[in-house]
Structure formats: C-alpha cells, structure tokens
Amino acid sequence: MSRSKSHRSFSRRLVVVAATAASAVVLAACGGNDSGSHTAHRSPSPSASSPSASAGAHNAADVAFAKGMIPHHRQAVEMADLAAGRASSSQVKELAAKIKQAQDPEIKTMSGWLTAWGEQVPQEMPGMDHSEHSGSSDMPGMDHSVMPGMMSAKAMAALKKKSGKDFDTAFMEMMVGHHQGAVKMAGTEKEKGAYGPAKTLADAVIKAQEAEIARMNRLLGKG
Q1: What Cα–Cα distance (Å) separates residue 2 from each residue in 6, 8, 10, 117, 190?
Q2: How far is CA 50 from CA 56, 57, 146, 197, in A?
C-alpha cells in the first residue's frame, strides 16, 4: 500500500509539473503575440502618415512666394481695373481683363494655402494703394525686397491721371516691369519651393506672363 500511495503521489507531482510547464509555454506564446501585435500597429504608422505629410509638405520658400505674390497680384489687378475707363486701345482693355481674370483666382488660392499652413494672409489696407505697401518697408511681416516689379505709390498715382494713348503706353510699360518681377519670383519658387501646387502655379505664372510680356512689347513696337 505504501508503494501504491507513493506512486500516486509521484504521478500527481508529474501532472502538476507538466501543467505548470504548459502554462509557462502558453504565457510565453501570448506574450510573444502581444508584443508582435503592438509592433504591427506601430510599424505601419510612419508609412501611413508619410503620404499625407508629403502631400502637404511646404517650406519657407513656399510661404514667402505666397506672401509676396498675393500683394504683387493685387497691384496688377488694381492696374488692370484702371484700364477699363482709361485705355483707348481695345487690345489693352482685353489684356487688362485677362490679367484680372487670371490673377484674382490665384490670390484666393494662395490665401487658402497660407490659411491652411497657419500663416497670416497679407491684408489689404482699406483706402490705401498696394503700391504704397511697396514703398513702406516697416509693414509687419512684409519684406518688399522679395517683391520685384512692384510699382511705387508715385508711379501708380501718375498712371491714374493718364488716359487714352498715354495711358495705354504707360500701362503696358509698367505692366511689363511688373510681370518681369512676377516671373522672377515664380522662378525662385520653382527652384527653392517644396509644395507641389505652389510650384505648379509658379510655372503657370511664368508661362502666362512671359507670353503677355511678349504681346505688350509687340504693341509697344519693341518686339
């Protein structure tokens, strides 16, 4: 009997040891799966966020382009508005209307970018010409050295006093210089910018305004 009891006791110990070992294996397996599941959740996150980040990636050059081109475009639109009641040439009036039609939507587009980027959109000063901005280097957040081609307040005031053929000539001469400045700014964006839509817009500005420069030079007898 004692040998039988001893045998049963030994058997029970074997069962306990086996159960303990099995539990350890199960726990280790669960722990390994848990660790693997966390890794699986973590590892895709950088790649998942990459497309979004790259699609919205922008840099300081993109911000400078939008902040500079918005007031630059506003002045071009202001000049174009003058042509309706002052120009004598139908071609000048048509050109001015085309400039406004192209640049008004671009102002809205670039303003939307700045807002999305958490940047301040350059404000229009009520009752003040955009040209006066170019002659005022103390405006907060504005560096007019990066806006080539902007007309001075004096030049804008002189343009407003002209009409007929005098206006046509002055308008086109000023707009050629203005466009050349915009082309230069757009070239800088294409070279240094990172935001795809801004670089695309810059390319469109270069193509459209170089064509308009050539047309105005022809009308001025220079090309």
Answers
A1: 6, 10, 12, 86, 95
A2: 10, 10, 32, 18
pLDDT in tens, 29-74: 444 444 443 333 333 333 333 333 334 699 999 999 999 999 999 9
* pLDDT tens track for 79-99: 999 999 999 999 999 999 999
In three-state form (DSSP H/G/I as H, E/B as E, the rest C), the secondary structure along the chain is CHHHHHHHHHHHHHHHHHHHHHHHHHHHHHHHHHHHHHHHHHCHHHHHHHHHHHHCCCCHHHHHHHHHHHHHHHHHHHHHHHHHHHECCHHHHHHHHHHHHHHHHHHHHHHHHHHHCCCCCCCCCCCCCHHHHHCCCCCCCCCHHHCCCCCCHHHHHHHHCCCHHHHHHHHHHHHHHHHHHHHHHHHHHHHHCCCHHHHHHHHHHHHHHHHHHHHHHHHCCCC
> Looking at this protein, which amino acid is placed at residue 64?
A
